[in-house]
Design a protein that fits this description.
Layout lengths: L17 E2 L6 E2 L16 E2 L15 E10 L3 E8 L5 E5 L6 H9 L5
Antiparallel strand pairs: 1-2, 3-4, 4-5, 5-6
Bound molecules: zinc ion (2 copies).
The site of one zinc ion has 8 residues, from loops.
């Protein structure tokens, strides 16, 4: 008997380069965590129910509307989907457009 079964681990974390369809910036993968939003305009896409599962069919643009402080000097970006209106939160990445984050922080949209 010569049976080799290779079971691939199931990753739901997707860290891939993509082109932002809001501002056109080519966004490189982050490598330390899943890159899920544009580093320039901070916009994301409503494709997940849970992070990385790509199970949502909305595909609306998630627009950053507020910034929340997170542990270890990190931030969470609060998003609202321009299509279905859902509120989502994503962790900010360390090379995100911090000037834009400050701008949103000083003038957040109400939830
Ligand atoms: Zn962008
Ligand atoms: Zn949506």
């Amino acid at each position: 008997m010569n049976e080799f079964t290779h079971k691939k681990p199931k990753f739901t974390m997707i860290d891939e380069a993509f082109k932002c369809n809001v501002c056109g910036t080519k966004v490189e993968p982050l490598e330390y965590t899943a890159r899920d939003h544009c580093l320039k305009c901070l916009c994301s896409k409503h494709v997940d129910n849970n992070p990385g599962d790509r199970a949502n069919k909305c595909h609306g643009v998630l627009k950053p509307i507020a910034i929340e402080p997170h542990k270890n000097d990190n931030y969470k970006i609060v998003y609202r989907c321009t299509k279905c209106g859902i509120i989502k939160r994503n962790k900010a990445a360390n090379n995100d457009n911090f000037n834009l984050m400050l701008k949103i922080m000083s003038n957040p949209e109400s939830l």
